[in-house]
User: Fold this.
Amino acid sequence: MSATAPLACKPGDYKSETKPIWCPGCGDYHVLMALTRALAALGEPPERIAVVSGIGCSSRIPAYTTCYGFHGVHGRSLPLAAGLKIVRPDLTVIVASGDGDGYSIGGNHFLHACRRNVDLTYLVMDNHIYGMTKGQPSPTTEPDFDTALTPGGTGVRPFNPLVVALASGANFVARAFAGNPHETANIIVEAVRHPGFSFIEILSPCVTYRPDQRAWKDRVHAAPVEATDDAARAARRLMTDDGFNLGVLYRGNRRPYRPAAAAVPCDQLELEKGFEI
Amino acid sequence: MSDASNIRAIDSPAALYALAYEIETDAVERYKLLAEQMETHNNVELTRIFLDLARAEGLHAEEICRMSGDLGVEAKDGPIGTWRTESPESADLNSAHYLMTPRDALLMALAGEERALAFYSGLASAAGDPVVKKLAETFVDEELEHVELCRRLLRRYPLPSGASAGDDPDPPFAVD
Assistant:
């Protein structure tokens, strides 16, 4: 190795000094572990990566990494990240969200981020509950989730994020389980490398408000079929999916959205000129 | 969790040393993560237990480095690992709980050691190369010792008479 060769980063190099304050056993710890391993495997130094999030337990993740971070407003992580990637296409942009932030408050942005197909990797830590605000049902909560807040259950059909992502044009669709950080790390690596909008739903148990989700580790299983690039076939599979198939389920080949180079001022002064009144 | 079937072919002592090193370093990382979770929530006793477990696995990793001589297993350790799913010895991260007891932590460790024992036993019986077989048997002996150690430590923490980690007398309250 020459004296000037850059040293490879280890997973620990992507972890900040700030200690996570999630509940013990929370799946989000393991997503952080998977993410740092994936970033080390990708070999990009922290200063070449931006982690953008919205609001919620899962959205605390940027503070726990040494990458550039943006803890945005509720549900708005995707437009923030898309803007960043368009202006700085050289950065690897990871977007972190939860099922409330991503599918409810930010639901509309989710659809259009899939459509635009900007080269982003979107990690949604799905625990079927609003954990940070103490247990309200989210868009992915089961209809029979019977609590003091939802007596007799919500009675509402849950949102199917993978089907929605595929139908809206996401170029890479996968499901992972937080309890399998190796497997999740491998999927994140593949998602980042895949051009366009990559969506990974990560089943991330909320052990505090959904102790029943401890059983997820026994329910998850490898997807029985290989990923396809045929959206129609993927749609049929996802519509009959049991919600616990893990792995890459769809790899599309749509061209990612890239604005014409001339339209993207990367120079600070040029950018400021654009905002002049 | 993993078994021998989801790991690439171990056809040389170097490959087995490298894999064993990965298994131990993965275990260290997981125990440190669990210690961090407990430290955040001021559970001093469990923080200490998980740090002790991390230290023990770290010593085992160092021992593997020493045994492997100049094979450079440390340099070959990748950020993600060899296995397709999870490492055989890995602690079940989903089992952590804010009401976890030292006994629960040791049961978690015991389960990991038993999986590692089963893994190396499977490898030893399937190995074609006599050198790989002998080395796998060495790791079987090591893991047997670890299983016994966990069992001995568990005797210090007898079965609770009533409630377990899952029985929360003051459960989280969902507000309107």
